[in-house]
Write a structure and sequence with these properties.
The structure holds 2 protein chains of 2 kinds. By secondary structure, chain A is mainly β. Chain A has strands spanning 4-7, 10-13, 19-25, 31-37, 43-50, 56-57, 68-72, 75-80, 89-95, 111-115. Helix content of chain A is 0%, strand content 47%. In chain A, the strands form 2 sheets. In chain A, strands 2-10-9-4-5-6 form a 6-stranded mixed β-sheet, with no helix packed on it. In chain A, strands 1-3-8-7 form a 4-stranded antiparallel β-sheet, with no helix packed on it. Chain A is globular, with a radius of gyration of 13 Å. By secondary structure, chain B is an all-beta fold. Chain B has strands at 4-6, 9-13, 18-24, 31-37, 44-50, 55-58, 61-66, 71-76, 85-96, 99-104, 108-113. In chain B, strands 2, 4, 5, 9, 10 and 11 form a 6-stranded mixed β-sheet that branches. In chain B, strands 1-3-8-7-6 form a 5-stranded antiparallel β-sheet, with no helix packed on it. Chain B is globular and about 50 Å long. In chain B, 37% of the residues are buried. The chains are: A mainly beta, B mainly beta. Chain A binds chain B through residues 31, 33, 41-43, 45, 48, 56, 90, 92, 94, 96-98, 103-110, 112, and chain B through 30-31, 33, 35, 40-43, 45, 48, 50, 88, 90, 92, 97, 99-102, 104-107.
Chain lengths: 116, 114
């Protein structure tokens, strides 16, 4: 199994500012994923982060708004840039299932962001 | 894109069984998952099933998979008040270029009446 730690767990930010969320995994993984969960909604994939290459963004998400870093096989960051109240959500990171052959898809505990 | 559908609400009495249903469209799904999310918390993986299985049991949880109908269910036996949460169904499918991703349903809010 993989243990995934996210920081911060929650934050309240002013509109127009940026917040960087960190995700640390206790083992090396090829792919990491960033999801957004808007209030009362399901999870939507923002992007897939591969080490050594640029992140792949899903439709409706762009690099300028959600830049992602993946400096090594255990760490990734997601930045929410130029925030507006519509960015208030829970942001979660996850790792690729079939890690080491196990199909469990684990998630970090999430970062609850409120933009005021 | 691929789609995962769930009913939004379920209410049961404590001690009864709960059955949460899910349908999906991706015929190439390899694994299907059930997650639990309590208020203010992240996602907890409850169980998963490989697509070539039709049933998996884990203590109070029973997962049934009808691959022909693309229908997945989660049965919780002897439902307790601590089971009150939102339950998400997810399927792992191929997203292209050697990449797999999870697609989630909207979640079923389970309310347990004491």
């Amino acid at each position: 199994s993989a243990v995934i730690s996210q920081k911060p767990s929650r934050d309240i930010c002013q509109r127009g500012t940026s917040l960087t969320i960190q995700c640390q995994v206790d083992s090396q993984v090829t792919m990491m994923f960033w999801y957004r969960q808007q209030p009362g909604q399901s999870l939507t994939l923002i992007a897939t982060a591969n080490q050594g290459s640029e992140a792949t963004y899903e439709s409706g998400f762009v690099i300028d708004k959600f830049p992602i870093s993946r400096p090594n096989l255990t760490f990734s960051t997601l930045t929410v840039s130029n925030m507006s109240p519509e960015d208030s959500s829970i942001y979660l990171c996850s790792v690729d299932p079939l890690l080491g052959g196990a199909p469990e898809a684990f998630f970090g505990q999430g970062t609850r962001l409120t933009v005021v | 894109g691929e789609d995962v559908e769930q009913s939004l609400f379920l209410s049961v009495r404590e001690g009864d069984s709960s059955v949460i249903n899910c349908t999906y469209t991706d015929s190439s799904s390899t694994y299907l998952y059930w997650y639990k999310q309590e208020p203010g918390a992240g996602l907890q993986l409850l169980t998963y099933i490989f697509s070539n299985m039709d049933m998996k049991q884990d203590q109070r949880l029973t997962v049934l998979l009808n691959k022909k109908d693309k229908h997945l269910s989660l049965r919780i036996a002897d439902t307790q008040t601590g089971d009150s949460a939102i339950y998400f169904c997810a399927e792992r499918g191929y997203s292209g270029a050697g990449s797999y991703q999870l697609t989630f349903g909207k979640g079923t809010k389970l309310s347990v009446i004491p």
